[in-house]
Amino acid sequence: MKSYEHVRILLVEDSELDAELTIHALKDGKLANAIDWVKDGQQALDFLFHEGEYSNSPPNPPQLILLDLKMPRVSGIEVLRVIKADSRTRRIPVVIMTSSQEDRDIAEAYDLGVNSYVVKPVDFTAMTNIARQAGYYWLAINKSPVT
């Protein structure tokens, strides 16, 4: 069994309710010991590249990024574009968790290198299960390259 004592997840989500459900699911499933939650795309980029309010934080990249698409300041698509274009972050698995079912969003996300695209259900229990399953797959089943 894989140890999750040093697993870090970055959750990029502007909805407080969706963030709370996701964090609860991941902690309940014991899938991470550290979940960093940022509320918009600019905060995500600052966190990942140690800029802005995170300029003094030590480098500690996440093993998984859960990314919403529709966010203020910088969209999830733009965050994904930057993550996958930079050698420091391109290997980090990114799972988009969004309410958007638009074909163009799905296509653009995969064109940019997203690892998975999940449409968030509106049901509390289903949302919790999706978050737990996504975390379990990417952290326990999938074999990621060493970064």
TrEMBL record:
The keyword Oxidoreductase does not apply. GO terms for biological process: phosphorelay signal transduction system. It comes from the Bacteria. The keyword Secreted does not apply. InterPro entries: CheY-like_superfamily (IPR011006), Sig_transdc_resp-reg_receiver (IPR001789), TCS_response_regulator (IPR052893). Pfam families: Response_reg. Residues 8-135 form the Response regulatory domain. This is Response regulator. Keywords: Phosphoprotein. The modification 4-aspartylphosphate is found at residue 68.
